[in-house]
Amino acid sequence: MTPPPPSTAPATLPVAVVSERLPWRHTFISLRVPNFRIFAVGHFVAVVAIWMQRIAQDWLVLQLSGSVTAVGITVALQFLPALVLGPWGGMVADRFAKRRILILCQSVAALLAAALAVLALSGAIEVWHVYAIAFVLGLVTVLDQPARQVFVHELVGPQYLRNAISVNSTTFQLGGLIGPALAGALLTAVGAGWAFAGNAAACCSTVAMLLLLRKDELYVSTPAPKRKGMLREGLRYALNKPTIYWPWLMAGFIAVFAMSLPVVLAAFADRVYGIGAGGYGMLNALVALGALAGAVASTRRRRLRLRSVILGAGMYGLMLCLSAFAPSVVWFGAAMVLSGFWCLMFLTASNQLVQISSNMGIRGRVMSLYIMVLIGGQAIGGPMIGSIAEHLDPHAALLVAGGVPALAAATVAVVLARKGELQLRVDFRDRRRLLRVVQRAA
Predict the structure, then answer these.
(1) Which domain holds residue 132?
(2) How far apart are CA 164 and CA 224, in angstroms?
(3) How far is CA 412 from CA 38, 56, 163, 252, in A?
(4) Residues 253-272: what's their mean pLDDT?
């Protein structure tokens, strides 16, 4: 595959969107690209392992400290660097080779996971060790995430970008389905140390996969030259595009309130249902099961529209609110599946819309702002939701986690409807589109 010649289009022209629905055989069409297949395999292994580490880390902190708030602090420390340094990471992604950045980041992540494994297996681990390593891993994420988001385009080019983003989400959620289950089994059988060791090995395998990529088949973009005001340029660009600004705003509400769901699930597993480490892994796996279904459904999405982002955010919040009233662990688990589905529908729609709405020369900075909000918001939300779960009630924490994003989505929907003179119409003649958003008649 030979990369296309450089485009002569204006610098701010977004990538074209194909609105036709793909046939089922093309659901994962981006995997036809050899480089993306190699990357997807490495990404899947890494995702399974990082979920193992995440679940083992949270449960280990809960057991060492006896505090749900401490689990929230761990989340905050891991995501705080993205909140502070996120735009800088995007600038680096725009200026340097993404593949080299990823190799460096995964190498450092392997060392950090190995350090956790040694401490846990030796029995010398303390809560402050986990805090310190989580913070350093957050620094790695500052560089890794913007580079990883933009690197997808270099693997598949503009033609398969939307599909590749959905495939990446599917891979992430399939790993999220397997990883927590494996973590629960390992925690019960041999302890957290082996989960950390598995992640260290997986990071090494990711580096190997990146080295195997065919460099001559990458759609490498020209690095942005260093100049003053690069960060301001990215911020101004994002704020002036509704298809970037509104997903960015909704991502903020979701990140602060609803993305710390594992913290709440730890409280439910330990204090509400008493199902232990295995049950905690199971609840996270159920969320991932729903998210996997959402990721596959997102590959079938015909049109990419702002209303899809708002609907996904609102439904995710509503599902979390309903789960707070679940009468048993069975119903709670079912609500987690639905929550995972709508969470992924929001995340994929938002990610796709932001990427496609920004040109390659500035995409790293735009995505870093999006990631700063999505990941950095969890640095605020983790301790807050954890504190509510510990000092008030886990059910109250879940109501706050879902209620605020649902209310925000409803408010944004009203604002956008007024701006676009839209209205909701019920059409009983068309069962497939019973509810439709249409232009208000003059």
Answers:
(1) 29-439
(2) 24
(3) 40, 37, 27, 13
(4) 87
Residue 129 lies in a domain: yes
Highest mean pLDDT among 9-23, 73-87, 253-267: 253-267
Q: Please state, in angstroms and rounded to a whole number, the distance separating the CA atoms of residues 101 and 8.
A: 28
Tell me: pLDDT of 319 over 90.
yes
Strands 422-426 and 435-439: antiparallel
Judge contact between 76 and 382, C-beta under 8 A: yes
In sequence order, what are the beta bridge partners of 424? 437
Question: Does 366 reside within a domain?
Answer: yes
The CA-to-CA distance between both ends of the chain, in Å, stands at 51
pTM exceeds cut of 0.70: no
Tell me the per-residue pLDDT of 202-211, one tens digit each, with 9 for 90 and over: 999 999 999 9
Task: Find residue 423's DSSP bridge partners.
Answer: 438
pLDDT of residue 387 exceeding 60, the answer is: yes
- Give the C-alpha separation, 53 to 45, whole Å: 13
The whole-angstrom separation of Cα 194 and Cα 183 is 9
Task: Classify residue 13: in a domain, yes or no.
Answer: no
CATH number of the domain encompassing residue 161: 1.20.1250.20
Residue 419 CB-density burial (10 A; 0-12 exposed, 13-18 middle, 19+ buried): exposed
**Residue 112: per-residue pLDDT:** 94
Query: What is the rounded CA–CA span in Å between residue 383 and residue 178?
Result: 27
Residue 348 has pLDDT above 80, yes or no: yes
pLDDT in tens, 213-233: 888 888 777 666 666 767 777
Q: In this structure, what token pair is assigned to residue 415?
A: 């604002």
CA distance 319 to 344: 13
Q: Please name which of 329, 394, 326, 333 lies closest in space to residue 71, comparing C-alpha atoms.
A: 394
Q: d(Cα 302, Cα 220) in Å, to the nearest integer? A: 28
Report how many domains make up the chain.
1
pLDDT in tens, 415-430: 887 776 445 555 556 5
CA 90 from centroid of its chain's CA atoms? 16
Specify if 212 maps to a domain. yes
Paired with 422 in beta bridges are: 439
